[in-house]
C-alpha cells in the first residue's frame, strides 16, 4: 500500500553529448603539443652532438683519444690493392671540385624527386662542411697528428662530415618517398667513410668520430626543417570546389 502512495521518481535525463566541433580543437592541440615536444627533443639531441664535438676537440688538445695511436700505425702500414683503391675513392669525395659536382647532382635529383623544401634542407646540411672548416681553422691540428704527419689539419674529418650530413639527408628524403634501395646504398657509403679514412692514413679515429657527430647534428636540423611542412599540410582541410563555394 505504501509503495503505491510513494511519488514516482523523475527519470534521469542523459547529459547532452559534447559536439564533435569542441572535440576537434582538443585533439589538434594535443597533437601540436606532442609535436612541439618532439621538436624540442630533436633540437636538444642536435645541440648535445655539437657540444660533444667541441668537448672532444678540447680534450684532444691535452689527451690522446683511445685508438688514435693504433689508427696512426694502421694508416702508415702497407695496404692491399683493394683497400688502397677504396681509400682513394673516398679521398676523391673530399676534393673541392668533386664536392661541387656532387652537390649539383644532389640538387638535380631533389628537383626531380622532391620539393622545394627538400632543396632548402640540403642547404642546411651543407653548413656541416662549413662548420667543419671553421673548427679546423680555429683549432688547427691535434698534437698526435702533428707528431706523426707534421702538416695539415685533421679534426674533424671533412669527408666523414660531408658524407654523413648529405648522404644521410638524401637517404631520409628517399625513404620518405618509399624508396628502399637508395637509402641502403647511402648508409653503406656513410658507414665505409670512417674506416676508409683511417685505413688510408688521412685521419685518426678521433677525427672520424668527430665527423660522424658533426654531420649527424646538422642532419637532424635539416630533417626537422624538411619534415615540418608535411605535418602542417596534414592538419589543414583539403581544398575542393565545395569548400571554395562556402567562401562566397
Word description of this protein:
The chain is mainly alpha-helical and 248 residues long. Helix content is 76%, strand content 0%. It has helices at residues 2-5, 20-60, 68-76, 81-93, 96-113, 116-139, 143-148, 158-176, 181-199, 205-235, 241-245. The longest helix is centred in the first third of the chain and has 41 residues, at 20-60. The chain is globular, with a radius of gyration of 28 Å. The N and C termini lie far apart (69 Å).
Major pleated sheet: none
Uncertain segments? 230-248
Helical amount: over 70%
The SS-based structural class is mainly alpha
What is the first-to-last residue Cα distance? 69 Å
Q: Report the mean per-residue pLDDT as an integer.
A: 82
- Shape, per Cα inertia axes: globular
What are the secondary-structure elements, in order, as H or E?
HHHHHHHHHHH
**Beta fraction:** under 5%
Tally of DSSP helical segments: 11
Radius of gyration, in Å, reads 28 Å
Number of β-strand runs: 0
Write the layout of secondary structure elements.
Blueprint: H1 2-5, H2 20-60, H3 68-76, H4 81-93, H5 96-113, H6 116-139, H7 143-148, H8 158-176, H9 181-199, H10 205-235, H11 241-245
Amino acid at each position: 500500500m505504501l509503495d503505491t502512495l510513494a511519488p514516482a521518481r523523475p527519470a534521469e535525463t542523459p547529459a547532452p553529448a559534447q559536439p564533435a566541433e569542441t572535440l576537434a580543437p582538443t585533439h589538434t592541440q594535443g597533437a601540436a603539443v606532442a609535436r612541439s615536444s618532439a621538436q624540442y627533443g630533436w633540437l636538444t639531441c642536435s645541440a648535445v652532438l655539437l657540444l660533444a664535438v667541441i668537448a672532444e676537440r678540447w680534450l684532444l688538445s691535452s689527451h690522446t683519444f683511445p685508438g688514435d695511436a693504433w689508427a696512426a700505425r694502421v694508416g702508415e702500414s702497407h695496404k692491399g690493392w683493394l683497400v688502397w683503391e677504396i681509400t682513394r675513392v673516398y679521398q676523391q669525395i673530399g676534393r673541392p671540385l668533386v664536392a661541387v659536382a656532387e652537390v649539383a647532382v644532389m640538387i638535380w635529383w631533389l628537383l626531380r624527386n622532391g620539393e622545394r623544401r627538400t632543396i632548402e634542407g640540403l642547404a642546411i646540411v651543407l653548413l656541416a662542411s662549413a662548420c667543419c672548416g671553421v673548427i679546423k681553422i680555429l683549432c688547427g691540428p691535434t698534437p698526435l697528428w702533428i707528431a706523426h704527419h707534421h702538416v695539415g689539419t685533421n679534426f674533424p674529418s671533412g669527408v666523414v662530415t660531408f658524407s654523413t650530413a648529405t648522404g644521410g639527408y638524401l637517404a631520409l628524403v628517399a625513404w620518405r618517398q618509399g624508396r628502399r634501395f637508395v637509402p641502403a646504398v647511402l648508409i653503406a657509403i656513410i658507414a665505409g667513410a670512417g674506416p676508409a679514412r683511417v685505413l688510408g692514413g688521412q685521419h685518426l679515429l678521433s677525427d672520424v668520430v668527430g665527423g660522424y657527430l658533426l654531420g649527424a647534428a646538422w642532419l637532424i636540423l635539416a630533417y626537422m626543417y624538411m619534415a615540418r611542412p608535411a605535418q602542417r599540410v596534414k592538419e589543414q582541410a583539403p581544398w575542393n570546389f565545395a569548400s571554395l563555394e562556402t567562401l562566397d
